[in-house]
Amino acid sequence: MQVLKVVATKIEFQKLKTFKFFILLVLSISISTSYAQIDSVFINDANIWGQKISVRYLKSGVKKLASKKMLGRETSSKGELAAIKYITKKLKSYKLEPLGLNYIQSFYTGFSSKKKNDYYSYSDSAFNIIGFIKGSVKPDEAIIISGHYDHLGKTSKGIYFGADDNGSGISSILEIVRIFKLAESKGFKPYRSIIFLFFSGEEKGLLGSKHYVENPLWPLNKTIANINIDMIGRSDSAHLNDNKYIYVIGSDKINPKLHNVVNEVNQSSLSLNLDFKYNDPSDPLRLYYRSDHYNFAKKGIPVVFYFSGLHSDYHTPNDVYKRIEFDNLLIRVKLIFNTAWYLSYNPLNGFNND
Ligand SMILES: [Zn+2]
Questions:
Q1: What pTM was estimated for this model as a whole?
Q2: Which of the residues 119, 167, 211, 260 could staple to 62 if both were Cys, CB 3.0 to 4.6 A apart?
Q3: Which residues contact 45 (CB under 8 A, 6 or more apart)?
Q4: Residue 56 domain boundaries
Q5: Domain membership flag for residue 350
Q6: 189 C-alpha to center of ligand 1: Å?
Q7: What is the tally of structural domains in the chain?
Q8: Distance from the CA of 329 to the center of ligand 1, in angstroms?
């Protein structure tokens, strides 16, 4: 999660509102406006495969990503390279097909922040990691499941381990890859393609996602939705007695079909308390603008951002593995997996302009 920046983006949101109005207008004059009832066959399949999501794997991923060896995974540092090595090794072991050369999309960050007397070897390049599963019915349409793997590195205060931010999201996506590939090996091939995108440069200003949407490896007009995951392993002070919640942000902004799917998949499977408090873009914390989904939203791609809230260890060296609430993480990953499964199988037309 990027730090809060006070910038004027009201105009950008105004544009989105205008766009949303246009979409609503198109929908209202279209005969295909009515939502299909959620298809229970796909939800049943999602639930069956979602049961295989394992706390053991989630723990192992967060532990690795938030280990000393990863040095806080700062963009363009040795820690970033260690994280790339780990993530790509996992993707290879799950036999995920690479998008880009060996899963890597490199980009220029625009800065070279070599620190004096530091053992990091900084460069001005950073790397997104990308793989995909080809769809079986509508292979040219894709959903993107994303999260950022970079964090804040190391300062005089110590290593910023970033277990929640965003070790929790990356470990979750790796587990979602594992289950989709397992299902595929048993004949459950998604109808649409699914792209798994691990961003760098998020903490420096959403740089990896900005580069991706400007240099997409899949046509943006065939990218029907982005599910973004950033910090889903802890609880905030508003939910100390609620272990079945998640914040949902942005799902109603571009196309109401996505919002509908997000809600209905939840109601017909995990029944979490979906908290839309931060969905209001005028909320002072401005969370809608603070993670990588926002760059997709700016391009008119429907987004949904899953997040479990800020806490006192946010952006401190205390964001560590042992403070992750894995039982809560598990149920959130299951919900996100079910939603992704439904989006990749559902019979609705694309989520862009049709
Ligand atoms: Zn952050």
A1: 0.89
A2: 167
A3: 183, 188, 341, 345
A4: 10-345
A5: no
A6: 34
A7: 1
A8: 18
